[in-house]
């Protein structure tokens, strides 16, 4: 049983959308924060009500303890979402956010108010296992990995004070997602729209396609170039995919 939490603490809304036809909940990547989705909110509002999840341990929640597992984080996010599941809702998750969105969707469906569609971006399917063992790496190795993947402001990585601030969150999230695994039979009833880069070192297109084995409703696959954070290079196209899908499923 989940414990009720403060919805406003967990969900950030950057733009008002009083007449929105659907709500989009965005889940950040490992080490990421809600503000990463500010451009998505700018692009989709006011047609859609965009909210972004703020995990404990970062930005204005930096004094809070990290959540060590995907399962516990999903429980807590689900509790925070209960009050906003009052109409058509979709989930968008990138990288670690994709598996978290999937787990939250499973919990929402069990309580009878699941999302109409889930966007899984930049992540292999939940049942596909790789031994990356980032939790055993030192800071220098993790920093090298972050630089390779992109998506983090270079000023953060070169400024010792800022680097020391973000590294604990990244390490915690890496450990959480590396310990996570879903059985092949774990499924949701909502369709899954998969977005992935053909040159992403974290997942192959075939591994990403296996997301469709975790839904009873099928879905689509959209491929890009640009590496793990392809969505920064192709922001307009990503927003177009989201908007077109929401118009289709959230009528």
Automatic annotation (TrEMBL):
<dbReference type="InterPro" id="IPR020802">
    <property type="entry name" value="TesA-like"/>
</dbReference>
<keyword id="KW-0378">Hydrolase</keyword>
<dbReference type="InterPro" id="IPR012223">
    <property type="entry name" value="TEII"/>
</dbReference>
<feature type="domain" description="Thioesterase TesA-like">
    <location>
        <begin position="25"/>
        <end position="246"/>
    </location>
</feature>
<comment type="similarity">
    <text>Belongs to the thioesterase family.</text>
</comment>
<protein>
    <recommendedName>
        <fullName>Thioesterase TesA</fullName>
    </recommendedName>
</protein>
<dbReference type="Pfam" id="PF00975">
    <property type="entry name" value="Thioesterase"/>
</dbReference>
<dbReference type="InterPro" id="IPR029058">
    <property type="entry name" value="AB_hydrolase_fold"/>
</dbReference>
<dbReference type="InterPro" id="IPR001031">
    <property type="entry name" value="Thioesterase"/>
</dbReference>
